[in-house]
Amino acid sequence: MSQEEQSDHSAAHGASKQKVFYHLLANTLFASVINFTVWFAITFYAYIETKSVFVTGMIAGVYLIATMLTGIWFGSLVDHHKKRNVMAASSLASLVFYALSFAMYLVTPEHVFQDQYSPVLWGFIVLLLLGVIAGNIRTIALPTLVTILIPATRRDKANGLVGTVSGVSFLVTSVISGLLVAAGGMLYVLILALVITAVSLVHLFTVTIPEKGIVHAEDMPKKVDLKGTFKVVVAIPGLLALVLFSTFNNFLGGVFMALMDAYGLSLMSVQAWGLLWGVLSAGLIVGGLIVAKRGLGRNPVRTLLLVNVIMWAICVLFPLHGSIIPLAAGMLIYMLVIPYAEASEQTVLQRVVPYERQGRVFGFAQSVEQAASPLTAFFIGPITQFIFIPLMTTGLGADLIGSWFGTGADRGIALVFIITGVIGLAATILALKSKYYRQLSRKYLSAPATTTEAPVAS
Questions:
Q1: Which residue of 87, 125, 368, 407 is most buried, as measured by CB atoms within 10 A?
Q2: Of 203, 450, 260, 251, which Cα lies nearest the Cα of 351?
Q3: What is the pLDDT of residues 369-382, one digit of tens each?
Q4: Helix, strand, coil proportions of the chain in percent (round to 5)?
Q5: Sign of the C-alpha dihedral, residues 145, 147, 150, 156?
Q6: Residue 145's closest CA among 292, 285, 294, 346?
Q7: How does DSSP assign 313-363, residue by residue?
């Protein structure tokens, strides 16, 4: 074959892999939309039925604990099986859990769901969350597919497209979940979940991913290899520090998960709140598209930390005034920069971690990073409900700062956001000055772009 023919063949092969990547992005979009819809909807529905911040905090806590416990296992599944097979298993598991939830919803009287201590309510919530959690296998598999299908020099931009898909998911989700819950409780949500999950499962079997086989290191046992994965992580200078930094951020981020819906719903109706999140989620799309167009710069590690400075500064500023306008403005900027943070971490891991370990390392990162969040989500709801809300309603806080800060339940939640933002901002500034930041930056910049290429079918 001549050099020109080889070039044409290589170009055609690259275009074919890119087409597969777009199909997988579209499939993931459908699956993510329905999983996010179920998650948003059950949070909205439970709060509307019970009027309890405690319930929203517990929902976030249950989700995060399950994510933490399953991340390493899911990563092992991704490394030990064909990527399409694990993604299909993910959709099938979600379909089963949603079907069980649908049956349970049909036979349960509505008043049962109004009792925040009802075992039936919590059984229903757990079934739905299991369906959502099964979809997390995709969040581990997709970055490894970027390694397979996209050249190293373009992976940051591909990761930007992944962020755009997340943005579209949130946009569609936040709108339809609020509208569906307002129209028919969880009934229409569950019907849509069953239909869309089944369609995405069928579509997966029309996509062929060019893998020769499962790639294993010679010393890699075919099991959940936590010890070996940890050795890989600590062997890369600064990588463990990056994971721990993200863990700390998620510890604080649990505050958002537990309280944001309660805060928003205290300011506006569920329909308006859902529509607002639809508008705000456009920020994720725009941010992802900017990353896809312009990349992340020479050093994604620095980009990640600078983005966190912006995010935590926003968390301090938007709650200062009890109005939907600063909340919307702050969250729009927050959404714009989230794709930078996610794409930065993925791009760093794809460059510095050997391909045969990437599923496990992504799973390890997911588990460890989520480890602290359940503590926040479980405790912040009760702490806010029983300490900060009374503090800013009739307590000392209302007396001291209520004249300018405002009083009431929403201002108690706002005070928790501000304290969280101050802590997060301080931690990020310290991270920027640390030796671990410099170590990982040097490792990323010195790593050859070809070291993590995956062997694929020609």
A1: 87
A2: 450
A3: 656 555 666 677 78
A4: 85, 0, 15
A5: positive
A6: 346
A7: HHHHHGGGS-SHHHHHHHHHHHHHHHHHHHHHHHHHHHHHS-HHHHHHHHH
SS3 211: strand
User: And the tokens for 237?
Assistant: 């200078």
Phi and psi, residue 108, nearest 5°: -105, 125
Q: Which of the four pLDDT bands, split at 50, 70 and 90, describes residue 452? A: very low
Dihedral sign computed on CA atoms, order 30, 35, 39, 42: positive
**Among positive and negative, which fits the CA dihedral 34, 40, 41, 46?**
positive
- For residue 41 the two structure tokens come to 């909807």
C-alpha–C-alpha distance, residues 338 and 58, integer Å: 24
Q: Measured between alpha carbons, how far is residue 379 from residues 259, 382, 390, 392 in Å? A: 11, 6, 16, 18
- The residues with which 456 forms a beta bridge, in sequence order, are 211
| Orientation of helix 355-370 relative to helix 324-352, angle to 10° | 150
What the block records as the tokens of 27 is 């499939």
Task: Give 154-205 pLDDT, tens digit per residue.
Answer: 777 787 777 677 666 666 776 788 788 888 888 999 999 999 999 999 998 8
Q: State how far the Cα of 282 lies from the Cα of 276, in Å rounded to an integer.
A: 10
Q: Please report the domains of the chain, with CATH numbers, ordered by start residue.
A: 14-209+234-446 (1.20.1250.20)
Q: Would you call 271 exposed, middle or buried from its count of C-beta atoms within 10 A (0-12, 13-18, 19+)?
A: middle
Tokens of 34: 């329905």
Which one-letter amino acid corresponds to residue 400? L
Element (H, E) at 223: none
C-alpha dihedral over 138, 139, 144, 148, to 10 degrees? 60
How crowded is residue 109: how many other Cβ atoms within 10 Å of its Cβ?
8
Q: How many secondary structure helices (H) and strands (E) does the chain include?
A: 19, 0
Q: Among the listed ranges 103-117, 208-222, 305-319, 365-379, which one has the minimum average pLDDT value? A: 208-222
Backbone angles phi, psi at 453, to 5 degrees: -65, 140
Apex 250 CA angle, 312 and 357, nearest 5: 125
